[in-house]
Amino acid sequence: xxxxxxxSVSRSSGGGTGRISGGFGSRSLHNLGASxxxxxxxxxxxxxxxxxxxxGHGGLAYRxxxxxxxxxxxxxxxxxxxxxxxxxLLVPLNLEIDPNMQRVRQxxxxxxxxxNNKFASFxxxxxxxxxxxxxxxxxxxxxxxxxxxxxxxxxxxxAYISNMRRQLEALGGDRLRLSSELKAMQDAVxxxxxxxxxxxxxxxxxxxxxxxxxxxxxxxxxxxxxxxxKVDALTxxxxxxxxxxxxxxxxxxxxxxxxxxxxxxxxxxxxxxxxIIAEVRAQYEDIANRSRAEAESWYQSKYEELxxxxxxxxxxxxNTKMEISEMNRMIQRLHSEIDSVKKQCASLxxxxxxxxxRGEMAVKDARAKLAELEDALQx
Length: 379
Description:
The protein has helices at residues 101-146, 150-266, 273-378, and strands spanning 5-13, 16-27, 37-49, 56-64, 67-71. By secondary structure, the protein is α+β, with helices and mostly antiparallel strands. The chain has 2 domains: 5-98, no CATH class; 170-250 and 286-378, Orthogonal Bundle (Helix Hairpins). It has a 5-stranded antiparallel beta sheet with strand order 3-2-1-4-5, with no helix packed on it. Helix 2 packs antiparallel against helix 3 (273-378). The two termini are 65 Å apart. One of its GO terms (molecular function) is structural constituent of skin epidermis.
């Protein structure tokens, strides 16, 4: 939308005619969905001699937002006419600046900045794509140049691929060999484990036998102590009986001597008391000797039997201790062998894993290079 105002003035006088017109214009005093324009135009022509017929003044117009006001009056030759004034034109114009103009300008600036940034990024992308295009063109030219030596490269790559395949087959053979060795080691470990369990069972049985033998040895020792106590008691009893026998014998001798005196006094018969005493003494001594011999023989037999039993148990105990120490040494040796076998198994498993990893990496590398070669050959 636009508004315009024009003022034109023409005058003529005397022996010539003249025309004066003037004008000025401005645009975009403020912009809020519409525009206003005020313009004046004019000009001046030099006077020329001629016929004078008068002067004239012609119209003034103003238009805002599609509506306009105007007035005009012409002066005819021969006199000054009355000027008519339109009162509506004397009303002050509302030429205030819109408060939203700054916000709109800021939005326009932001939009311009964003568009500039997008345009700069687009330019960068275009430059990058141009560089990529140049790189691709260079690669394409190099590949075109390499097509000449295509036939010379194929045997080399075929030899490399065959070498990789041989290495892969060798790694497969090593894997089978290591797998068989691992299986053999696992069987050996299982065998040693079974033997170790058997030795553990034997050790447990030997410990139980040792406990039983210890109980028997303790019982034999207690029997020995009891028999020693009984021997001491019998010895004391024999000594007591001997003392008693000697006391009775002395008492009997005293009685016999007294009786002999009495008999010698009262009776004149001659009695052989010495023989009687000797006979009784012999009988008592025989009884004491037999008792002593029986006690000594019984004690000696029991003592020898206890010694034999203790020696036998001692030998059994010594043999059991020797067997237990031998089993302990064997168990320690088996432990060390099992540890070494476990270490060997771990090292073999590590070697197998490394070989598998190297084989897989070699296969992947060979496949990647083969794919690259195929792509290069196809291109």
